[in-house]
Protein backbone atom coordinates (compact mmCIF):
# COMPACT_ATOMS: atom_id res chain seq x y z
CA UNK A 1 0.00 0.00 0.00
CA UNK A 2 1.59 3.27 -1.09
CA UNK A 3 1.28 5.97 1.54
CA UNK A 4 -1.67 8.23 0.88
CA UNK A 5 0.46 11.33 0.38
CA UNK A 6 2.47 9.58 -2.31
CA UNK A 7 -0.70 8.45 -4.04
CA UNK A 8 -1.98 12.01 -4.10
CA UNK A 9 1.14 13.15 -5.99
CA UNK A 10 0.47 16.86 -5.79
CA UNK A 11 2.21 19.89 -4.37
CA UNK A 12 -0.39 20.79 -1.77
CA UNK A 13 -0.59 17.34 -0.23
CA UNK A 14 3.19 16.94 -0.21
CA UNK A 15 3.56 20.32 1.46
CA UNK A 16 1.02 19.22 4.08
CA UNK A 17 2.92 16.02 4.77
CA UNK A 18 6.26 17.82 5.04
CA UNK A 19 4.84 20.36 7.46
CA UNK A 20 3.23 17.72 9.63
CA UNK A 21 6.33 15.56 9.68
CA UNK A 22 8.45 18.51 10.76
CA UNK A 23 6.02 19.75 13.37
CA UNK A 24 4.94 16.43 14.83
CA UNK A 25 7.97 14.20 14.27
CA UNK A 26 5.94 11.20 15.42
CA UNK A 27 6.94 7.82 14.02
CA UNK A 28 4.18 6.04 12.14
CA UNK A 29 3.63 2.29 12.34
CA UNK A 30 4.20 0.38 9.14
CA UNK A 31 1.11 0.94 6.98
CA UNK A 32 -1.07 -2.07 6.26
CA UNK A 33 -1.61 -3.54 2.82
CA UNK A 34 -5.24 -3.70 1.72
CA UNK A 35 -6.01 -7.26 0.68
CA UNK A 36 -9.48 -7.79 2.18
CA UNK A 37 -12.65 -5.68 2.47
CA UNK A 38 -13.50 -3.93 5.72
CA UNK A 39 -14.65 -6.37 8.41
CA UNK A 40 -16.88 -4.76 11.03
CA UNK A 41 -17.04 -1.03 11.70
CA UNK A 42 -14.78 1.19 9.61
CA UNK A 43 -14.61 4.66 8.17
CA UNK A 44 -16.91 5.12 5.20
CA UNK A 45 -16.80 6.83 1.78
CA UNK A 46 -20.16 7.16 0.03
CA UNK A 47 -21.01 8.12 -3.54
CA UNK A 48 -24.62 9.19 -4.15
CA UNK A 49 -27.48 8.02 -6.33
CA UNK A 50 -28.66 11.00 -8.37
CA UNK A 51 -30.55 11.69 -11.59
CA UNK A 52 -29.93 14.02 -14.51
CA UNK A 53 -30.60 14.55 -18.19
CA UNK A 54 -28.25 14.17 -21.13
CA UNK A 55 -26.42 17.39 -21.84
CA UNK A 56 -27.28 18.83 -18.43
CA UNK A 57 -25.26 19.13 -15.22
CA UNK A 58 -25.75 16.98 -12.14
CA UNK A 59 -24.51 17.52 -8.59
CA UNK A 60 -22.54 14.63 -7.08
CA UNK A 61 -21.92 15.02 -3.33
CA UNK A 62 -19.22 12.86 -1.74
CA UNK A 63 -19.86 11.85 1.87
CA UNK A 64 -17.44 10.63 4.53
CA UNK A 65 -17.97 9.05 7.98
CA UNK A 66 -15.22 8.61 10.56
CA UNK A 67 -14.65 5.12 11.94
CA UNK A 68 -15.60 4.15 15.51
CA UNK A 69 -13.38 5.13 18.44
CA UNK A 70 -10.27 2.96 18.41
CA UNK A 71 -8.92 4.16 21.75
CA UNK A 72 -5.83 5.86 20.26
CA UNK A 73 -5.83 9.57 20.94
CA UNK A 74 -4.83 11.60 17.87
CA UNK A 75 -4.38 8.59 15.63
CA UNK A 76 -6.31 6.00 13.65
CA UNK A 77 -9.18 5.69 11.21
CA UNK A 78 -11.53 7.31 13.73
CA UNK A 79 -9.61 10.60 13.42
CA UNK A 80 -9.05 10.92 9.68
CA UNK A 81 -7.47 14.23 8.70
CA UNK A 82 -6.79 13.69 4.98
CA UNK A 83 -8.18 11.63 2.11
CA UNK A 84 -6.97 10.76 -1.39
CA UNK A 85 -9.46 8.97 -3.64
CA UNK A 86 -10.45 8.33 -7.23
CA UNK A 87 -14.11 8.44 -8.17
CA UNK A 88 -15.03 7.14 -11.56
CA UNK A 89 -16.54 4.61 -13.91
CA UNK A 90 -14.80 1.25 -13.51
CA UNK A 91 -12.29 0.54 -16.25
CA UNK A 92 -11.10 2.95 -18.90
CA UNK A 93 -12.43 4.06 -22.23
CA UNK A 94 -12.30 6.66 -24.99
CA UNK A 95 -15.36 8.65 -23.92
CA UNK A 96 -16.33 10.14 -20.59
CA UNK A 97 -20.03 9.87 -19.69
CA UNK A 98 -19.43 12.53 -17.02
CA UNK A 99 -17.21 15.57 -17.48
CA UNK A 100 -16.57 18.94 -15.88
CA UNK A 101 -17.24 22.22 -17.64
CA UNK A 102 -13.85 23.84 -18.23
CA UNK A 103 -12.61 27.18 -19.53
CA UNK A 104 -9.10 27.60 -20.99
CA UNK A 105 -7.93 24.33 -19.47
CA UNK A 106 -9.25 25.09 -15.97
CA UNK A 107 -12.30 23.86 -14.09
CA UNK A 108 -15.15 26.36 -14.02
CA UNK A 109 -15.41 28.12 -10.63
CA UNK A 110 -18.60 26.26 -9.69
CA UNK A 111 -17.26 22.82 -10.65
CA UNK A 112 -16.35 21.87 -7.08
CA UNK A 113 -18.15 23.16 -4.00
CA UNK A 114 -16.44 22.37 -0.70
CA UNK A 115 -18.90 21.63 2.09
CA UNK A 116 -19.31 24.60 4.45
CA UNK A 117 -18.55 22.30 7.40
CA UNK A 118 -14.93 21.85 6.27
CA UNK A 119 -14.34 24.84 3.97
CA UNK A 120 -12.56 26.93 6.61
CA UNK A 121 -10.08 24.26 7.67
CA UNK A 122 -9.55 21.98 4.65
CA UNK A 123 -8.42 22.22 1.04
CA UNK A 124 -10.05 20.06 -1.64
CA UNK A 125 -8.03 19.59 -4.84
CA UNK A 126 -8.94 17.89 -8.12
CA UNK A 127 -5.53 16.48 -9.03
CA UNK A 128 -6.20 15.55 -12.65
CA UNK A 129 -7.97 18.75 -13.66
CA UNK A 130 -5.19 19.93 -15.99
CA UNK A 131 -3.14 18.14 -18.64
CA UNK A 132 0.29 19.44 -17.64
CA UNK A 133 2.81 16.67 -18.45
CA UNK A 134 0.06 14.24 -19.42
CA UNK A 135 -2.13 13.59 -22.44
CA UNK A 136 -5.39 12.97 -20.60
CA UNK A 137 -7.13 14.91 -17.85
CA UNK A 138 -10.50 16.40 -16.92
CA UNK A 139 -9.97 19.70 -18.77
CA UNK A 140 -8.46 18.14 -21.88
CA UNK A 141 -7.97 19.94 -25.18
CA UNK A 142 -9.51 17.32 -27.45
CA UNK A 143 -8.50 19.31 -30.55
CA UNK A 144 -4.88 18.73 -29.53
CA UNK A 145 -5.35 14.98 -29.19
CA UNK A 146 -5.86 14.95 -25.42
CA UNK A 147 -8.45 12.64 -23.85
CA UNK A 148 -11.00 13.52 -21.18
CA UNK A 149 -10.58 11.33 -18.08
CA UNK A 150 -13.55 9.23 -16.95
CA UNK A 151 -12.46 9.46 -13.32
CA UNK A 152 -11.78 12.20 -10.77
CA UNK A 153 -8.76 12.25 -8.45
CA UNK A 154 -9.77 14.03 -5.23
CA UNK A 155 -7.47 15.03 -2.37
CA UNK A 156 -8.65 16.53 0.94
CA UNK A 157 -6.18 17.86 3.50
CA UNK A 158 -5.78 20.51 6.21
CA UNK A 159 -5.06 22.92 7.68
CA UNK A 160 -6.09 25.18 4.86
CA UNK A 161 -3.46 27.74 5.82
CA UNK A 162 -0.11 26.55 7.14
CA UNK A 163 1.66 28.84 9.64
CA UNK A 164 4.97 30.38 8.57
CA UNK A 165 6.65 28.79 11.57
CA UNK A 166 5.92 26.99 14.81
CA UNK A 167 3.77 23.92 15.48
CA UNK A 168 1.06 22.87 13.03
CA UNK A 169 -2.36 22.01 14.39
CA UNK A 170 -3.77 19.36 12.06
CA UNK A 171 -7.58 19.32 12.10
CA UNK A 172 -9.55 16.12 11.75
CA UNK A 173 -12.58 15.84 9.52
CA UNK A 174 -16.06 15.99 11.12
CA UNK A 175 -17.62 12.77 12.38
CA UNK A 176 -19.82 12.63 9.27
CA UNK A 177 -21.06 14.75 6.42
CA UNK A 178 -20.35 15.84 2.86
CA UNK A 179 -16.79 16.59 1.78
CA UNK A 180 -17.50 18.33 -1.50
CA UNK A 181 -20.01 18.38 -4.33
CA UNK A 182 -18.86 17.84 -7.90
CA UNK A 183 -20.88 19.57 -10.61
CA UNK A 184 -20.49 17.44 -13.74
CA UNK A 185 -22.14 17.36 -17.14
CA UNK A 186 -23.77 14.22 -18.54
CA UNK A 187 -22.64 13.39 -22.06
CA UNK A 188 -25.16 13.32 -24.89
CA UNK A 189 -24.21 9.69 -25.59
CA UNK A 190 -24.22 8.63 -21.94
CA UNK A 191 -25.82 5.28 -21.03
CA UNK A 192 -29.04 5.07 -19.02
CA UNK A 193 -27.04 4.71 -15.81
CA UNK A 194 -23.49 5.77 -14.96
CA UNK A 195 -21.88 3.91 -12.04
CA UNK A 196 -19.99 5.97 -9.47
CA UNK A 197 -17.21 3.89 -7.96
CA UNK A 198 -14.46 4.62 -5.44
CA UNK A 199 -11.32 2.74 -6.49
CA UNK A 200 -9.26 0.88 -3.91
CA UNK A 201 -6.52 -1.72 -3.78
CA UNK A 202 -9.30 -4.32 -3.91
CA UNK A 203 -10.02 -3.42 -7.56
CA UNK A 204 -8.22 -5.70 -9.99
CA UNK A 205 -8.18 -3.03 -12.69
CA UNK A 206 -8.47 0.75 -12.68
CA UNK A 207 -7.87 3.55 -15.18
CA UNK A 208 -4.33 4.75 -15.83
CA UNK A 209 -3.40 7.54 -13.38
CA UNK A 210 -6.20 6.59 -10.99
CA UNK A 211 -5.27 6.09 -7.34
CA UNK A 212 -6.26 3.63 -4.65
CA UNK A 213 -8.12 5.26 -1.77
CA UNK A 214 -5.91 6.26 1.14
CA UNK A 215 -6.63 8.00 4.44
CA UNK A 216 -4.24 9.73 6.85
CA UNK A 217 -4.61 10.74 10.50
CA UNK A 218 -3.39 13.91 12.34
CA UNK A 219 -0.02 12.22 12.93
CA UNK A 220 0.43 11.97 9.12
CA UNK A 221 0.21 8.18 9.27
CA UNK A 222 -1.38 6.05 6.57
CA UNK A 223 -4.28 4.28 8.30
CA UNK A 224 -5.94 2.84 5.21
CA UNK A 225 -5.59 -0.78 6.33
CA UNK A 226 -5.17 -2.98 9.36
CA UNK A 227 -1.50 -4.00 9.31
CA UNK A 228 -2.20 -7.32 11.08
CA UNK A 229 -5.16 -8.58 9.05
CA UNK A 230 -4.85 -6.72 5.75
CA UNK A 231 -8.47 -5.59 6.05
CA UNK A 232 -9.36 -2.19 4.64
CA UNK A 233 -10.22 0.40 7.27
CA UNK A 234 -12.71 1.98 4.88
CA UNK A 235 -16.10 0.79 3.68
CA UNK A 236 -17.12 1.93 0.20
CA UNK A 237 -20.66 2.70 -0.94
CA UNK A 238 -20.95 3.03 -4.71
CA UNK A 239 -23.50 5.31 -6.35
CA UNK A 240 -25.08 5.83 -9.74
CA UNK A 241 -26.22 8.65 -12.00
CA UNK A 242 -29.56 7.76 -13.59
CA UNK A 243 -29.73 9.43 -17.01
CA UNK A 244 -32.80 10.85 -18.74
CA UNK A 245 -33.15 11.84 -22.38
CA UNK A 246 -32.56 15.57 -21.99
CA UNK A 247 -33.95 18.36 -24.12
CA UNK A 248 -32.01 20.00 -26.94
CA UNK A 249 -31.85 23.76 -26.34
CA UNK A 250 -32.81 23.68 -22.65
CA UNK A 251 -29.72 25.55 -21.44
CA UNK A 252 -30.78 26.01 -17.82
CA UNK A 253 -32.43 22.61 -17.31
CA UNK A 254 -35.84 24.16 -16.66
CA UNK A 255 -37.68 21.56 -18.78
CA UNK A 256 -38.51 23.93 -21.64
CA UNK A 257 -36.75 26.04 -24.27
CA UNK A 258 -37.10 29.83 -24.16
CA UNK A 259 -36.46 32.44 -26.86
CA UNK A 260 -33.28 33.63 -25.16
CA UNK A 261 -31.97 30.06 -25.24
CA UNK A 262 -32.65 29.84 -28.98
CA UNK A 263 -30.65 33.05 -29.40
CA UNK A 264 -27.78 31.48 -27.47
CA UNK A 265 -27.91 28.44 -29.77
CA UNK A 266 -27.71 30.64 -32.86
CA UNK A 267 -24.81 32.60 -31.36
CA UNK A 268 -22.93 29.38 -30.68
CA UNK A 269 -23.55 28.17 -34.24
CA UNK A 270 -22.20 31.49 -35.57
CA UNK A 271 -19.14 31.36 -33.31
CA UNK A 272 -20.20 34.41 -31.26
CA UNK A 273 -20.52 32.40 -28.03
CA UNK A 274 -18.70 29.30 -26.83
CA UNK A 275 -20.37 25.89 -26.65
CA UNK A 276 -19.73 25.87 -22.87
CA UNK A 277 -22.50 28.51 -22.50
CA UNK A 278 -25.12 25.92 -23.49
CA UNK A 279 -24.02 22.35 -24.17
CA UNK A 280 -27.70 21.32 -24.36
CA UNK A 281 -27.63 22.40 -28.03
CA UNK A 282 -24.83 19.95 -28.80
CA UNK A 283 -27.10 16.94 -29.33
CA UNK A 284 -24.42 14.74 -30.93
CA UNK A 285 -21.64 15.75 -28.55
CA UNK A 286 -19.24 16.96 -31.26
CA UNK A 287 -18.49 20.28 -29.57
CA UNK A 288 -20.46 22.51 -31.96
CA UNK A 289 -24.03 23.46 -32.84
CA UNK A 290 -25.30 22.42 -36.27
CA UNK A 291 -28.40 23.52 -38.20
CA UNK A 292 -30.29 20.31 -37.37
CA UNK A 293 -29.62 20.91 -33.66
CA UNK A 294 -31.03 24.45 -33.93
CA UNK A 295 -34.11 22.97 -35.59
CA UNK A 296 -34.49 20.50 -32.71
CA UNK A 297 -34.24 23.38 -30.27
CA UNK A 298 -36.91 25.36 -32.14
CA UNK A 299 -39.22 22.34 -32.21
CA UNK A 300 -38.76 21.87 -28.46
CA UNK A 301 -39.55 25.55 -27.92
CA UNK A 302 -42.76 25.25 -29.98
CA UNK A 303 -43.95 21.81 -28.91
CA UNK A 304 -42.36 21.34 -25.49
CA UNK A 305 -39.51 19.11 -24.39
CA UNK A 306 -39.96 15.36 -24.86
CA UNK A 307 -40.92 13.58 -21.66
Comma- or semicolon-separated keywords:
alpha+beta; disordered N terminus; 5 helices; elongated; seven-stranded mixed beta sheet; six-stranded mixed beta sheet; Immunoglobulin-like; about 300 residues; 2 domains
Helices and strands in order:
Blueprint: H1 4-8, H2 11-24, E1 43-46, E2 49-53, E3 57-65, E4 82-88, E5 98-99, E6 102-103, E7 106-107, E8 112-114, H3 116-119, E9 123-126, E10 136-137, E11 147-148, E12 151-157, E13 176-186, E14 193-198, E15 214-216, E16 234-237, E17 239-244, H4 259-270, H5 291-303
Parallel strand pairs: 1-16, 2-17, 10-11
Antiparallel strand pairs: 1-3, 3-13, 4-12, 4-14, 4-15, 5-13, 6-7, 8-13, 9-12, 14-17
Explain this structure to me?
- The structure is a single chain.
- α4 (259-270) packs antiparallel against α5.
- The longest helix has 14 residues, at 11-24.
- Strands 2, 4, 9, 12, 14, 15 and 17 form a seven-stranded mixed beta sheet that branches.
- 16% of the residues lie in helices and 26% in strands.
- It has two domains: 4-244, Immunoglobulin-like, CATH 2.60.40; 259-303, no CATH class.
- By secondary structure, it is of the alpha+beta class.
Amino acid sequence: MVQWVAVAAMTGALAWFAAVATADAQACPTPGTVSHPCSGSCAKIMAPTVSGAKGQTVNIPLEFDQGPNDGQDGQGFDEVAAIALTLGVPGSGGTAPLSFDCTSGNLNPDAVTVDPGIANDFTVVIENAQCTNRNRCLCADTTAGQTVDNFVNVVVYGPKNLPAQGPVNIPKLPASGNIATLKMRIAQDAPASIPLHVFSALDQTKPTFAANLSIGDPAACDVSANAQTGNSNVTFVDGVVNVGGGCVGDCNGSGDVQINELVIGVNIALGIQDISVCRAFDANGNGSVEINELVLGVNNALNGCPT
